[in-house]
Amino acid sequence: MAEQPVTERPASGPPSGRPAAADGAWHRVHPLTPAVKSWSALVVVLVVIAQEFGREAVGGSGGSSSDGGGGPGEAPFDIRDLGGGVLAGGTALVALVVLLAVGFAWLSWRMTRYRLTDEALELHQGVLSRRQRAARIDRLQAVDVVQPLVARIFGLARLNVEVAGSGDSKIELAYLTHDQAIGLRAHLLARAAGVTYSTTEAPEAPEHAVFELPVQRLLGSVVLSGAFVTAVVGGLGLVVGAGVAAAFGAPFGSAFAGVFPMALAVGGILWSRFTNGFGFRVASSPDGVRLRHGLLEQRSQTVPPGRVQAVRLRQPLLWRRPGWWNVRVNVAGYGAGGEQQGEGETTLLPVADRNEALLVLSMVVPDLGVAPGEDPRWLVGTAMDGAGPDGGFVTAPREARWLDPFAWRRTGYRVTDEVLLVRRGWLHREVDVVPHARTQSLGVRQGPVQRRLGLATFAVHSTPGPVAPVVPHLSSAQAAALLAEQSVRARAARLAAGPERWMAGPGDDLTPGPERADPADPGGPAAPAAPAADGPPPTAAS
Amino acid sequence: MSEHPASPRAAEPFEPDGVRWSAVSPRLASARRVSGCVPLAVLGLGCAVAALVVPWSQFWLPAGFFLAATVWTWWLAGRQAAAWAYAEQEDDLLVRSGIMFRRIVVVPYGRMQFVDVHAGPVDRLFRIARVQLHTASAASDAAIPGLPPEEAARLRDRLSSRGQSRLAGL
């Protein structure tokens, strides 16, 4: 890597020993990247080559052709009967294909380069169609270090830098050595936070372990899931049914063939839930919440303060006895991927007890803005398993029972100075927490039946993700009042929001965030108070 | 815009105090009628012709269905177009739509990410355009169809400048 012109050291930074220092120069990703990215294809090719060489060694000595099914594309012909010339031709063809593939992989590796400047992370990619992408560091939403199994074997890692955008908006640096990825992450977070440092290596923020998921509880949570119970009940029913059918002369196994794909799908869901949650650890640091998890593919996520747009605490029916909760979040950028990917990224706690859930909630939403003398833990507790007006909740009116006969008593919302708490669900309990400062827009809907009953559904629009905060079937007057009040509160909270660079004090915020650009901002008293209100220090101290 | 009959109790969330609503162009109804009714009417008339040509066939059934759907779409397009309204407030854009299924969206200018102005071929025929405000949320669907092009351009520029002056981070 060092002999390439792209890695020349610029004058701006002193030469450092680390290969991926954030010195503003262009760097290449690790040379093994193509192999790790296309390892499955590589294995096929290697097998085919091995078979070809094996045949060549055996020569025309015949033998059984039972092992002749190598690759469908490369070696579909039965060569041995045709003599040595064709054999050599086939080998040459395979060699040519492999050479082309290797050449292309090498080119694509050579064309991939990245650099980290003071403002942005830039990535250039592509051989035929080229892509250059630059992400502003002050727009950074989350940084993930991901290690798929094969990358882990080689000590490599992928760095995913999420910025808020619609669709695929992240920058993926694949693959770096694990140390490089960690070092680059530290640089990115330090610059995004506004920390100034004179060393060539960014200081890694200290962290404090908060939560570790025991594997027994993870297994328990998978067993006590709706999918698992349905699968077991369905499977038992199927066996009994097949037995009865067999008694009447039908072949016993015939019933199973039809449900096999379904069983496979359910098994896949449960397996991914297990591997995603395996070894789940949460730590707090000044850079925000750090999550580590994964059995085969290990993921280490960092979500800086103020980047969590909304939180959902959820308790399925079967988790009520053990008192477990699932916590998921909306982070801009995370929700944009596929459904499967989103599930791995947006989970803050796969399964936690009540205290752990409350603790982690207080990390991502440090200030619940409760009334003086009110206990925030008690308030969230009433949201978790309360009903009716306790905890100051505004509940759905009695008319809502026609549309929602069971859950209407629990449906309700509570507004504090900082957040909107929404309580929902009868069998599956749900609590949504949305900071006013993170509200995107608001909406009210009303169908014909709701209109007859004088009801309306209120919604807060958050960034894409698992949390869609909705208060169904409020009275029209409540919905109208909430709509008017929330838009005022959200506006005030936006103006008072802290800086995007969470470690920068109000004084050394030399490049002002967009909030500061607002001339209408009554800067004086609000500005110094804001970072203290939702900055990281209380989190770090916990 | 606020003439359609509604009980005062039910109208509350959709009639905020002190908001002056602007209606969209009545040409929106015509555009929707053309794009919705023409295919249905063609299908219906085709079936009717087939029913006349082939005696004792069952083509009357689909013909009746499609023609009824044409009339219904005609009626619905007028009703829905009349229900679209928007209001530019000090800090937010309000968009309201629907009569059976009513909806109101409040989008703060500071949350705006970008504005789309879109006009399809039928829209251009009737000289209307659709302005859509995008935030970081996919759920905040603040679209105003059926604006005259010059009004759409004015609204786009106005929204952009207001978004600029009230810009907030995520």
Helix and strand layout, with pairings?
The complex is a heterodimer of chains A (542) and B (170).
Chain A: E1 27-28, H1 33-37, H2 39-58, H3 84-111, E2 113-116, E3 120-125, E4 131-136, E5 140-147, H4 149-153, E6 156-163, E7 171-177, H5 178-193, E8 208-212, H6 215-223, H7 226-247, H8 254-277, E9 281-285, E10 288-293, E11 298-303, E12 308-315, E13 324-331, H9 339-345, E14 347-353, H10 354-364, H11 376-385, E15 394-395, E16 412-415, E17 419-424, E18 429-435, E19 441-446, H12 448-453, E20 455-461, E21 470-475, H13 476-496, H14 514-517, H15 523-534, H16 537-541
Antiparallel strand pairs in A: 1-2, 2-3, 3-4, 5-6, 5-11, 6-7, 8-9, 9-10, 10-11, 12-13, 12-18, 13-14, 15-16, 16-17, 17-18, 19-20, 20-21
Chain B: H1 8-11, E1 22-23, H2 27-53, H3 60-83, E2 85-88, E3 92-97, E4 102-108, E5 114-118, H4 121-125, E6 129-134, E7 142-147, H5 149-165
Helix pairs in contact in B: 2-3
Briefly, what is this?
With 542 residues, chain A is of the alpha+beta class. Chain A contains 16 helices and 21 strands. Chain A folds into three domains: 189 residues, no CATH class; 63 residues; 191 residues, no CATH class.
**What's the name of the CATH homologous superfamily of the largest domain in chain B?**
Pleckstrin-homology domain (PH domain)/Phosphotyrosine-binding domain (PTB)
Global structural class of chain A: alpha+beta
Please state the CA-atom Rg of chain B, rounded to the nearest Å.
Answer: 20 Å
SS summary, helix count of chain B: 5
Distance between the termini of chain A: 43 Å
Which strand order do you get reading across the main beta sheet of chain A? 7-6-5-11-10-9-8
Helix content range of chain B:
40-55%
CATH architecture of the largest domain in chain B: Roll
The number of domains of chain B: 2
The portion of residues forming beta strands of chain A comes to 15-25%
